Structures are given as C-alpha cells and as structure tokens.
C-alpha cells in the first residue's frame, strides 16, 4: 500500500430527483477536498439522483440528464482529487445501480451493484439489472475496491476485488435509518475485513456526526 492516501468522506444527504442540487453539493465537497489536499472524495450510493429514485431512473430523459451530469462533474477531476459518486448507469446488459469513478478529467470506470436487495423498502430487482463481479480501480498508486451497499453483506464481491488487487475497501451505502441495525451492519463489515485482511471505509449519508467527514490517512 502507498505510504499516504488522503480520502475525504462526503457523508451528505441527497434529495431524490434533484440532480442539479445534488451535483452542486458534489462541487462544494470536491472544493473542500481539494483544499484539504485529498487524493479522492467519495459520496454515498446513488447520491447524484438521490436514493431511492424508484422509477425516475427508468425515464429516458432523467437517465440522460444524470449521465450528462456525471460527465460534466468528471471535468472537476482534471487536476484532482478523484471522485467516487453513486448514480444510475446504462450498459448493454441493462440499467444498473452504479458507482462512478471520476479521475483525470474523465469517467474512469463504473462499478455495477451485484446483489440487489428486494425486501422491506427495497425493490431494486424490479428496477436494475445485477452487475458482474468486478475488480478494483486505481487512484494514483492505490487500488480500491468498492462493494456497493448490499454487496458488502456477502463474501463474494469483496473477495473478488481483493483477489484482483484491492488494497482497501470503500463501501458506499444509501441505507435508510433502521433502529437496532447498526450492530448488524458492523458485524458484516468486520467480517469483510477479517476475511480479506484489508482496511474498510463505510460511507453512509445517515451515520456521520458531521456533514463532511474527516479525511482518512492510509499508511
């Protein structure tokens, strides 16, 4: 692992459907991360559109607007820091719950959620197609894996990313408040760390004592 990697956690609450307002929050957080000399700033699951957008993402105009905004935000990263940002992604295999990696002024990679929850308040299987097991992405010298929310509750996604070279796991979530569930979430994340012997960062809009989280120094 690199001697130093500064990661800023933008644990902010997006508004469903408000692409422009959510993008403005991305710009503000990115500016703060740049001022803090961060290498990357990361946002929660589906932050650009808000979570859950439900059938909004199935409207072609809405999906085009979200995609265009992602490409616009990518330009912010030309001189750093990189951005990890949740949003819908359309591929040849279907519509996905995606995690967009923006770096070097372009869209570097889009990870696609593999395990789609389909209980209680979640009906992702109706809206999205599952993504494949994918490898990590590189930001500078560091290789990062990002199991998206439910993906971190199972062994396979994190394992595939670490076996492909991930040195740290950054887990973007959009989980709603659920009384008494913190310990369950924690036990799953501890399991992923124990199984893979890598550090893990858990990112969720509802569990930060401050709106913009402090930076992580990895060494």
TrEMBL record:
Cellular-component GO terms for this entry: cytoplasm
Pfam families xrefs: CN_hydrolase (PF00795)
GO function term, MF aspect, one: glutaminase activity
All copies of domain CN hydrolase, residue ranges: 5-219
EC number(s) stated in the UniProt entry for this protein: 6.3.5.1
InterPro entries listed in its UniProt record: C-N_Hydrolase, C-N_Hydrolase_sf, NAD_synthase
GO BP: NAD+ biosynthetic process
Presence of the UniProt keyword Phosphoprotein in the record: no
Enzyme class: ligase
CDD domains: GAT_Gln-NAD-synth (cd07570)
Alphabetical UniProt keywords: Ligase
Listed SUPFAM superfamilies: Carbon-nitrogen hydrolase
Protein name: NAD synthetase
